[in-house]
UniProtKB/TrEMBL annotation:
It is found in: Cell membrane. It comes from candidate division WOR-3 bacterium. It catalyses: GTP + H2O = GDP + phosphate + H(+). This is Signal recognition particle-docking protein FtsY. Its main location: membrane. The keyword Nucleotide-binding applies. Signal peptide: none annotated. Belongs to the GTP-binding SRP family. Keywords: Cell membrane, Cytoplasm, GTP-binding, Hydrolase, Membrane, Nucleotide-binding, Receptor.
């Protein structure tokens, strides 16, 4: 199954939601529909104003606007080998699974990868990641429950430097964005990475569960303020009609959506394309 087919399967529920929204020419009903899709109040007002002022098919007007909103430019950061990618997010957002799938994705793009299992809180987190590492035949630095997470990351980077590996993927403990001590632990990890590499981590990806809707944006704002985020990974899109949440995520956070989860299989983490996403949710014929 190619990427577009996987995207269509993933966004079935979201597409049904948008078909219901776009089927009306009544702007008041369109506004209600966009709000019900978790687009957000201010963005919905802006989109309705655009539809009022722009002649032509409202569907095409919306498509163009949404592609524009979602097309946030980014560049692949690289400061020094090994490239370090830190995965953060709240409990249950799918971080550990996405670390495994990211490792697979990078390996298929000829990168030599090591995983740092720095979730030292959750029972079974290290074992889960170990299974992923064995499955994709990649290196891993394991941790013990209660161990200093920053020390695990330090060991992984040193190991990668010695072996001349390309990338370190860091799985971190799920944490509430409101828990100051857990945010401080993340800051410590970033400081250790900076000290060992003489540079910041190249990427800090925040995982957001699509099904939580607008709550995910509020979480992201705090992580962005406290830690700094370079991109978003949206998970669990296949189980929700709230795929439209990607739109206010991009609009409010001004952060690029880098990857989206399209299912349970190892290859079901794909790079995000604004055009493919919007065209898929507006393709009501298929």
């Amino acid at each position: 199954m190619n990427i577009l087919e996987r995207l269509k399967n993933t966004l079935k529920k979201t597409k049904e939601k948008f078909k219901e929204i776009i089927s009306t020419d009544n702007l008041e009903k369109l506004e209600e529909g966009l709000l019900s899709a978790d687009i957000g109040i201010q963005l919905t007002k802006n989109l309705i104003e655009k539809c009022k002022k722009t002649p032509g098919d409202k569907k095409e007007v919306l498509k163009k606007e949404l592609i524009k909103i979602l097309s946030i430019p980014y560049k692949e950061n690289f400061f020094s080998l090994p490239k370090v990618v830190l995965i953060i997010g709240v409990n249950g957002s799918g971080k550990t699974t996405k670390v495994g799938k990211l490792a697979y994705y990078y390996k298929t793009n000829n990168k030599k990868v090591i995983i740092a299992s720095a979730d030292t809180y959750r029972d079974g987190a290290t074992e889960q990641l170990k299974i992923w590492a064995e499955r994709i035949n990649t290196e891993i630095v394991l941790s013990q429950k209660g161990q200093d997470a920053a020390a695990v990351v330090f060991d992984a980077i040193i190991s990668a430097q010695k072996r001349k590996l390309d990338m370190v993927l860091v799985d971190t403990a799920g944490r509430l964005h409101t828990r100051k001590e857990l945010i401080e632990e993340l800051k410590k990890i970033v400081r250790i990475i900076t000290k060992v590499k003489n540079s910041q981590p190249e990427e800090i990806f925040l995982t957001i569960d699509a099904s939580v809707g607008q709550n995910g944006i509020e979480q992201a704002k705090i992580f962005q303020k406290e830690i700094g985020v370079t991109g978003i990974i949206v998970t669990k899109l296949d189980g929700t009609a709230k795929g439209g949440i990607l739109i206010p995520i991009a609009y409010e956070l001004k952060l690029p959506i880098r990857y989206i989860g399209c299912g349970e299989n190892i290859e079901d983490l794909i790079p995000f394309s604004a055009e493919d996403f919007v065209n898929t949710i507006f393709d009501f014929e298929n």
